[in-house]
Design a protein that fits this description.
The complex is a heterodimer of chains A (277) and B (365). Chain A has 277 residues and is an all-alpha fold. Chain A is 79% helix and 0% strand. In chain A, α3 crosses α13 (241-276), α5 packs across α7 and α7 (140-164) runs antiparallel to α10 (194-210). With 365 residues, chain B is α+β, with helices and mostly antiparallel strands. Chain B is built from eight helices and 21 strands. The two termini of chain B are 33 Å apart. The chains are: A mainly alpha (277), B alpha+beta (365).
Chain lengths: 277, 365
């Protein structure tokens, strides 16, 4: 009896220490990133490395704001936010049409998701040439539309699954009760798949937020996103680690905020999809 | 004037012919029950009336106006769905008010209307709750409330009670019928349950395989079924069917496969003239077999029955025995028989039996 108890305690403590070790392993790079951003240049290059700065100082961030580099985060916000909103709106409507009116049969839905599988590198230069012709290089419109185009298939695919999960009678009841199709979408479909909407929007936003390749090729000076901005600090002779880390932290914070506020929906949205299969 | 008139209605789902030419007229204020086994097209018919399905052929008129291409929201109907169709993110109040808001009812009118409907259905204390906090019976009341509050021209019910347990079903049956009497509106009710059909309907429309098998008042269908299907569908326990042959020995009688004869009363002979020697199916309702005692009335025939199975229900007792190679169920008085193995004398009321042509399955007498 007592032995069993002790064994169970031992197993529990082993499990806990494994969990703590794993968490530390994954948290360390983030910790290190934050710490570098607070260090002075001397501390950054000191050997042996310092585990934490002697004094928390924001000089590295100050430089970014003084030079105007920090606006790259704003650009990223506009681009990611704008493309997410457009992709969510259009994607949900397309998904509704696919789910309820069987638009294009089964095949159209499969074809749409296949668009997501195109390797970006295969299309980036044709798109660049197209954008030069359209005068869209280095503009909000260009980047937002491109991200929207890349996110739409994902949004359509996910939202179609969530919409198919809504009992048809809920919509039919609304139609009989006096709603138009648009009202049905607004008053029944959106509230019914709220968790799915948020989860999909978060993934869409994160994709656009982290996108690098298109941003590198299609932006110059006006609409530089933070991922591209970071590359400017890798020099031929030296790397500006202070700026790299501070910029990376600025780029990480919005995602933290988004996930922290939306965690509830994120978990529910993902598991909803999981059950559907 | 007919409130609803359907002519030559056909509906296909791909290659499935779900409704095969239905003609139906429903007078204003009538409670009509569409009944039949699953897959008979009753729900499809109802959904076509609501406009949730398009008619592939034929006409649907409501109040004298052709409705084929009119959107559901313009048909002035209210519908109660089998799975309640309540919005989980809205309170009971908002669920009931949904149709009013969708139709832009002035805000000041919504509250009293919702409360009145809630009072009718005894769900006023639940108005602030969410659907997940309600029991099945309460959910169904809310769903009915959603329809009632609309004050529509016509109310459609699609198997609204099939998710409830037996006791609640009995209760809600009465409730809906009472509602019909209070509102006086045309109601069309779909069910697969023949007891619901019998107890609630002003008129039953019995569907089979996409077509109307027979339509009429409940007792009309029960007592004068047109086909073997109708005879067997209505009634619980179901009607007994015995294969037999008509035998002419001066007067016609029914000869069972074991050779025994059941004499037909004089007034049943007419319609059967010329059928002597033909095979026939004898249909006997369980309540028309009673325990025989003393002198029998005209038209009753006496048989000795070895009881094989006894099923007391409290008020009545169902007893199973064999007659002419077939198994029959008799609905006897509670204490007429107590255990299997007993031998009793039963009387079959030949005035009330139906005789069915086994080839066409139509009732001939």
């Amino acid at each position: 009896m007592n032995g069993l108890h002790a064994r169970r305690r031992l197993r529990l403590s082993l499990r806990l220490s494994a969990a703590v070790a794993t968490t530390l392993f994954f948290l360390f790079p983030i910790y290190w990133l934050f710490m570098i951003s607070f260090k002075t240049p001397d501390e950054i290059f000191s050997y042996p490395p310092k585990w934490h700065p002697g004094r928390i100082q924001f000089e590295n961030y100050g430089v970014l704001f003084k030079d105007g580099d920090a606006t790259a985060v704003w650009h990223s916000l506009v681009v990611a936010g704008g493309s997410t909103l457009i992709a969510m709106f259009l994607g949900t409507i397309c998904a509704y049409s696919l789910a309820r009116f069987k638009t294009g049969g089964e095949h159209l839905a499969n074809w749409i998701i296949s668009q997501r599988m195109v390797p970006p590198i295969a299309v980036v230069f044709p798109i660049f040439l197209l954008y030069v012709w359209l005068g869209w290089v280095d503009t909000y419109v260009g980047v937002i539309l491109l991200y929207t185009a890349f996110n739409l298939p994902y949004v359509i695919w996910m939202m179609r699954g969530y919409i198919l999960d809504i009992p048809l009678a809920l919509e039919e009841s609304a139609l009989v009760d006096g709603c138009t199709r648009w009202q049905v979408i607004w008053r029944v479909v959106f509230p019914m798949c709220r968790a799915g909407l948020f989860a999909t929007a978060i993934f869409t936003f994160v994709f656009a937020w982290n996108e690098f390749l298109f941003a590198l090729v299609l932006t110059r000076t006006e609409v530089v996103t933070y991922t591209v901005q970071v590359t400017f600090y890798f020099g031929g002779q030296s790397n500006f680690w202070a700026k790299i880390s501070a910029m990376s932290v600025l780029g990480t914070l919005p995602i933290f905020v988004v996930v922290a506020f939306m965690q509830r929906y994120l978990v529910r949205g993902i598991s909803l999809g999981a059950v559907k299969g | 004037m007919a409130d609803l008139k359907i002519t030559g209605l056909h509906k296909y789902y791909g290659s499935v012919h779900a409704v095969k030419g239905v003609d139906l007229e429903i007078p204003a204020g009538e409670f009509t029950v569409l009944v039949g086994q699953s897959g008979c097209g009753k729900s499809t018919l109802l959904r076509t009336i609501a406009g949730l399905e398009d008619a592939d052929q034929g006409a649907i008129e409501i109040g004298g106006q052709l409705m084929n291409h009119v959107l559901p929201r313009h048909r002035d109907i209210a519908m109660v769905f089998q799975n309640y169709a309540l919005y989980p993110y809205m309170t009971v109040f908002e669920n009931i008010a949904f149709g009013l808001r969708a139709r832009k009812t002035p805000a000041a009118e919504i509250e009293p209307k919702v409360r009145r409907a809630a009072r009718m259905l005894a769900i006023e204390p639940l108005l602030d709750r969410y659907p997940r906090q309600l029991s099945g019976g309460q959910l169904q009341r809310v769903a009915i409330g959603r329809a009632v509050v609309r004050n529509a021209r016509m109310y459609l019910f699609d198997e609204p009670l099939s998710n409830l347990d037996a006791q609640l079903r009995d209760e809600m049956r009465g409730e809906i019928k009472r509602l019909h009497q209070e509102l006086g509106k045309t109601m069309i009710y779909v069910t697969h349950d023949q007891i619901e059909a019998m107890t609630m309907a002003d008129r039953i429309v019995l569907l089979r395989d996409g077509k109307i098998e027979q339509a009429g008042a409940p007792l009309d269908l029960y007592e004068r079924p047109a086909t073997r299907y109708v005879a067997g569908f209505l009634g619980s326990p179901a009607m007994n069917f015995v294969a037999a042959r008509l035998q002419d020995g001066g007067a016609l009688s029914v000869q069972l496969t074991d050779g025994s004869l059941l004499a037909l009363p004089a007034n049943r002979q007419g319609k059967l003239a010329g059928r002597s020697g033909q095979s026939i199916t004898l249909g006997v309702r369980p309540e028309h077999i009673t325990r025989a005692s003393g002198e029998l009335r005209e038209g009753l025939v006496r048989r000795t029955a070895l009881i094989e199975l006894v099923q007391p229900t409290g008020s009545r007792t169902y007893a199973t025995f064999r007659l002419g190679g077939a198994e029959l169920v008799a609905e006897l008085q509670a204490h007429d028989v107590s255990q299997p193995g007993e031998t009793i004398e039963v009387a079959i009321d030949m005035n009330r039996v139906v005789l069915i042509d086994p080839a066409s399955e139509r009732v001939v007498s």
